[in-house]
Design a protein that fits this description.
heterotrimer; A mainly alpha (about 350); B mainly alpha (about 350); C alpha/beta (about 525); A: about 350 residues; mainly alpha; ABC transporter involved in vitamin B12 uptake, BtuC; two-stranded antiparallel sheet; 15 helices; 6 strands; globular; C: about 525 residues; alpha/beta; Rossmann fold; 3 domains; six-stranded mixed beta sheet
């Protein structure tokens, strides 16, 4: 039992399960699944489907945080990619054509990738603090998205595009498949190749990694590029869900949701060891939390308050843990911080 | 006893000596001068392009439309000088505005409501400061959480806007005081904003609190070893920012005649941009509130120019973002260059 | 001390008795005494790991004391913080000059005790006061100028002025001369002598031998956390001082074969040859070369430039000058990656900051070098990883022999072995080891030295830095001697022993003992 508790994923999963149990007690219909036209529906299914954009963004955020960085621009990137895709479809004579839709999606994601590379360039090559580098895009990105849509909320009527977020395949939402594929790809790339371990190495001790021959610059750059790419895909999903490009609302505040999901999953904001599985659990937890808040009748606009409270609690728990580690070293009330290198 | 005289002093009489004295004493003014130059270039350029930019009406409204931003920028300057950052100011401004409007609607007198608004701002600043200092939470996370909390709280007060009919508040904005012949005018909100700038500048220059703020930004460890009250000062800086956010809530409510829970979205980024453009270094320790004031005027000028052009307002954000980026990159180059030069 | 039959207890400004400082797993100071007398410059000597810095931190309230007493003017005191120490009259100026470069000189001197008028700072008075304090040290600079616009030397004098604002009875100067040139050192010493003559007790920490004799009245020597002794400077000749600091190690290590006696074939191309390699302000242009199977030892005291040299060779720092060839072919080594691509491996002296990846396992730390070399995409197969990790754990005797243990839980010696394994696993042709045996137990020391000798016998070229001269003498076929950031000698001899080496390091002018061939 002890070994189970010490497993890194124990607390995140426990928290999620508790949340689900509490919800079920409050409204037994929470775990009910209805079948209609061979497709599954129900609150749990809603959570699985609606969490897709956050899942994508959080996956990218996990890798960026692992390099000791942060990406505040993911929401803005979502807005831009949605704007690009919808503008292409809206301007095309055949919005229902699968080819047009594919081009639009690829264009949106490509632009997002470029934005991610831009962030990576500022951080890895120019050496700007990640907060500021991504803050610039956070500021300007939505403006760019608004320009692309001409200041309006571009709406379209395209069945293939709508299918992305709302369609079903083999009875399950397509969005869920997108989530799962993304999780699988990221997990494979990070763990099957050496990228994961090298990224952790850079995050834990950048200088030692450099001296050991790790190409830190490439790894950091790649992390931001991945974050941009995933945010772009998230933006496509979001705009597909409402069949519109709303530059102001797309991905609003998703940065904090993503950071919170990563932190809930056990990855430290200080960088280093990260957990994809933890982030996945974190995302589901947040989505369930939001569903709970809605169910309680709290207006969605107020939900940021609850998320803020959760963030503070989680960060406080992580902080004493840092302190607990240091205080373990001290026999008296004061603890010297660097005992090893004695000069 | 050996006399040690640094070479420059013996040639103090010569022009070279006085230039050297200027650079060794006032080198931190250079970014501010750069900001002033940019402002002048913008104004002159706008006048040449439009022909009717340099009117008393346009220039007066520069101050009045941006009075709230001016107040926020002063508070933000305090925080950034210590090397921190406060992402919550826009949301706190909205929250205090909503709370104030709601209390006024319930009949409380203005003389009570305004101090309450300031106190709420101070309280939120205190919370952020405590998280940052005592719990080692990174400033951007702590203030991001505060931003979410404040936004949620704003919606809790009311989901829709609240009109303000209190004559005292309205007087703040609607009264026009003639300041000079022609239609140069100023409102009480403008006077208030300028007062805040003045008080901020005086505090930073003439009090130990102010000098400690600069010291912390220069080197927190050194400030501590020098025996300066680092903890108290760091937390107070966030309190100052919070109070400014509360005051900005008053001013903005007066300006729009109502309070709207979605006010101030993105304002924190505008504020940071104004402060950075005004010559304050993000790394801390260098900068002036006067510079931040110039930065606010740069922002206001760009906004006015955009509206003169008839272009979409989103160009304002994009230009500010681009300008911010340029400033940050230049700051980074200068820092890297001087680090390489140091023996 | 008695006079006329009455006992006058002499109270010194500071008296440390039986100071012991322990951290989990390591005793940094063991029963050390130190007496600081008014009007005297007392220098604390010792090599890295000797405990100088720990003693200073105990005196100035940074570290808590496990045992022992601190007496200030005869009264026992407990310093819980730097503020306590300052209040008791002990002021410290650190090597990094802990002042704020973005504030004016005047503020740095006086802030915290600044003159006020009606509640606000009186700037005119502030600058007057600051100028006065600086002038009393013979320093006349523009107090309105920013501190950062002055050289480190001047900044240090400002720091001393600040220390004197509070009328400190004791001034502690921790390695103040590391970044100063000759003239600046003289200015600093003039100020120190002046303060001494005014009755201040000065504790001076440095590793520059010449300066020690120039300024000190008394010396205290520490070694391995213990007190070796306290001596008047005039009564301790240089060579004896060095011997006291470095001392003799146990004979356990002599069990190693006299590896140094091997003959090296230096007729072909060296593995690495650097001519004129240097970096302004860090290292004067230096020549060095290493052949296959040769162990080149770099000897010298702390601050002599050994680490700086090897970092330049490895590309960890960028050289300003010099050319390098690897096996005769011209090579541009400006980054660690470029060095690694040329099969050069490096192990830093600071294993915590620049070596161990603390949250990763022993296995992950070992294969990091190989994996980094291969790139992110070509991941090593588990079987291959396990084989290499097991081989090195066995070959170097890593304890516990658990590849999944987190490296931060291992002792210093075992961590060092893991880092050595990381470098060796990449199959280099040249390995650079900076203080590989520092701060580790004797058994691990022996293991590592044995392994190095073995590898060299099999053809690996080694550049090896150690502050322990016996190690260098035992393992190296060639010894490069450095001092004050210059190479001052190169010795190739089969008869050389530690005292010869000590003489070469200690000498005033480059003059080698007769039976040693100096090829500098």
């Amino acid at each position: 039992m002890r070994r189970l508790v010490r497993q890194r994923l124990f607390w995140p999963i426990a928290a999620l399960l508790t949340l689900i149990v509490v919800n079920t007690i409050a409204r037994p219909s929470f775990i009910s699944v209805t079948v209609r036209d061979g497709q599954l529906y129900g609150p749990l299914l809603d959570i699985l489907r609606n969490s897709a954009p956050l899942m994508l963004v959080a996956l990218g955020m996990t890798i960026v945080i692992a390099t000791r960085g942060i990406d505040l621009s993911v929401g803005a990137i979502m807005a831009v990619s949605g704007a690009v895709a919808l503008t292409i479809i809206a301007g095309s004579p055949s919005p229902d054509d699968l080819g047009t839709v594919l081009v639009a999606i690829l264009a949106g994601i490509a632009v997002a990738l470029v934005l991610g590379l831009w962030n990576g360039f500022l951080v890895a090559v120019v050496g700007i603090q990640p907060i500021i580098a991504t803050l610039v895009l956070m500021l300007a990105g939505r403006g760019v998205a608004l320009l692309i849509t001409g200041g309006f909320i571009t709406t379209i009527n395209s069945e293939p595009y709508r299918f992305l977020a709302q369609g079903y395949v083999f009875g399950l939402p397509l969005a869920l498949y997108v989530s799962l594929v993304a999780i699988a790809i990221v997990a494979v790339v990070e763990r099957r190749t050496a990228l994961g371990v090298l990224t952790e190495s850079v995050g834990i001790n950048p200088e030692a990694s450099r001296l050991a021959g790790v190409r830190s610059r490439g790894i950091v750059w790649g992390a931001y590029a991945a974050s941009g790419l995933l945010a772009g895909l998230a933006g496509i999903l979001y705009s597909s869900n409402i069949s519109a490009a709303d530059a102001n609302a797309a991905g609003l505040y998703i940065e904090l949701d993503a950071i919170l999901a990563v932190v809930l999953g056990g990855t430290s904001l200080m960088g280093g060891k990260f957990s994809i599985a933890g982030t996945v659990v974190g995302v589901f937890t947040i989505q369930t939390l939001k569903s709970t808040i809605t169910f309680l009748g709290v207006p969605p606009a107020v939900s940021p308050l609850f998320l803020a409270i959760i963030v503070v609690i989680v960060v406080l728990i992580q902080s004493p843990r840092l302190r607990g580690g240091i205080s373990r070293l001290a026999t008296s009330s004061r603890a010297p911080k660097t005992p090893e290198v004695v000069r | 006893m050996t006399g040690l005289t640094v070479a420059g002093e013996t040639r103090a009489a010569s022009a070279v000596g006085s230039v050297r004295r200027f650079t060794s004493r006032r080198v931190t003014w250079i970014p501010v001068l750069a900001a002033v130059t940019i402002l002048l270039l913008l104004l002159v350029g706008a006048q040449l392009y439009f022909g009717n930019f340099f009117t008393p009406r346009v220039l007066s409204s520069l101050l009045l439309d941006n009075a709230y931003l001016l107040i926020l920028a002063v508070g933000m300057t305090f925080v950034i000088l210590t090397g921190g950052i406060d992402l919550s100011v826009g949301a706190v401004m909205a929250f205090t505005g909503m709370l104030g409007a709601s209390l006024l609607r319930d009949g409380l007198p203005t003389a009570v409501v305004i101090p309450v608004m300031l106190a709420i701002g101070a309280g939120m600043g205190l919370a952020v400061g405590v998280l940052v200092h005592y719990f080692d939470v990174q400033p951007f996370i702590a203030s991001l959480a505060a931003m979410f909390a404040a936004r949620g709280l704003a919606f809790m007060v009311s989901l829709s806007s609240i009109k303000v009919e209190d004559p005292a508040i309205l007087w703040l904005q609607s009264t026009r005081l003639q300041v000079a012949p022609g239609s140069w005018y100023i409102t009480p909100t403008g006077i208030l904003a300028l007062l805040v700038v003045l008080v901020g500048a005086l505090v930073l220059h003439f009090t130990r609190f102010g000098r400690t703020i600069y010291a912390i930004g220069g080197s927190e460890q050194s400030a501590r070893l020098m025996g300066l009250p680092v903890v108290r000062t760091k937390i107070l800086a966030y309190v100052v920012s919070g109070v400014c956010a509360g005051l900005a809530g008053v001013v903005f409510t007066a300006y729009t005649g109502a309070s709207y829970p979605l006010n101030g979205i993105g304002t924190e980024l505008d504020t940071i941009a104004a402060v950075v453009i005004g010559g304050t270094l993000l790394t801390g320790g260098s900068g002036f509130v006067v510079g931040s004031m110039i930065g606010v005027f740069v922002y206001g000028t760009i906004k006015t120019v955009i509206s003169f052009l008839g272009a979409e307002q989103s160009w304002t954000r994009i230009s500010i973002g681009a300008l911010l980026l340029v400033f940050v990159v230049v700051q980074r180059i200068i820092v890297a260059r001087s680090a390489a030069q140091r023996r | 001390m008695t006079s006329h039959g009455t006992t006058t207890a002499v109270t010194h400004p500071v008296e440390l008795r039986g100071i012991t400082v322990e951290f989990p797993g390591v005793k940094a100071l063991d029963d050390v005494d130190l007496t600081l007398r008014a009007g005297e410059v007392h220098t604390l000597m010792g090599e890295n790991g000797a405990g100088k810095s720990t003693l200073i931190k105990a005196l100035t309230g940074v570290y808590p004391i496990t045992a022992g007493t601190i007496g200030v003017r005869g009264v026992p005191r407990e310093f819980r913080s730097t503020a306590d120490a300052q209040a008791a009259g002990v002021s410290t100026v650190y090597q990094e000059v802990n002042l704020c470069p973005n504030l004016s000189v005047g503020e740095n001197v006086v802030l915290g005790h600044e003159p006020r008028r009606f509640g606000r700072i009186d700037w005119a008075a502030l600058h007057r006061d600051a100028a006065r304090h600086l002038a009393s040290l013979g320093v006349h600079i523009d107090t309105r100028s920013l501190l950062g616009s002055h050289s480190i030397a001047v900044q240090q004098l400002v720091a001393i002025a600040r220390a004197m604002v509070t009328d400190a009875a004791v001034l502690v100067l921790d390695e103040p001369t590391s970044s100063l040139d000759r003239t600046e050192v003289e200015q600093l010493f003039a100020v120190i002598r002046d303060l001494r003559d005014r009755g201040v007790a000065i504790l001076f920490v440095t590793h520059f031998l010449d300066q020690v004799y120039e300024i000190s009245d008394r010396l205290t020597v520490l070694r391995n956390g213990r007190l070796v002794g306290e001596y008047p400077a005039a009564e301790l000749p240089r060579g004896e001082l060095i011997s006291l600091m470095i001392g003799r190690e146990l004979d356990e290590l002599d069990a190693l074969s006299r590896s140094a006696e091997r003959t090296i074939d230096r007729t072909g191309e060296p593995v690495l040859r650097s001519r004129g390699i240097g970096r302004r302000g860090v290292l004067d242009p230096t020549d060095i070369e290493v052949f296959d199977g040769e162990v080149v030892g770099l000897a010298g005291l702390l601050g002599s430039g050994r680490t700086e040299l090897v970092r330049l060779l490895f590309g960890a720092d960028r050289p300003d000058s010099g050319t390098t060839t690897v096996r005769g072919a011209s090579a541009r080594i400006g980054s660690p990656r470029q060095a690694i691509d040329r099969r050069i491996a490096f192990s830093s002296e600071d294993r915590r900051a620049e070596g161990t990846i603390s949250d990763l396992t022993v296995a992950e730390n070992i294969i990091l070098g190989i994996q980094a070399k291969r790139g992110a995409l070509r991941k090593m197969r588990k079987a291959e990883q396990d084989a290499i990790v097991d081989e090195y754990i066995r070959a170097l005797g890593v304890r516990p022999a658990d590849p999944q243990a987190l490296i931060r839980n291992l002792s210093g010696g075992n961590q060092q072995k893991v880092l050595l394994a990381r470098s060796l696993a990449t199959a280099p042709q040249l390995i650079i080891l900076d203080e590989p045996t520092r701060g580790i137990d004797v058994g691990a020391k022996a293991d590592i030295q044995r392994k190095v000798a073995e590898l060299a016998e099999q053809g690996l070229a080694v550049v090896f830095i150690s502050s322990e001269l016996e190690e260098v003498v035992r393992l190296a076929q060639r010894i490069v001697v450095m001092r004050d950031r210059r190479k001052i000698g190169e010795l190739t001899s089969h008869d050389i022993d530690v005292s010869d080496l000590v003489e070469v390091i200690a000498q005033e002018s480059p003059e080698t003992p007769d039976h040693v061939e100096n090829v500098a």
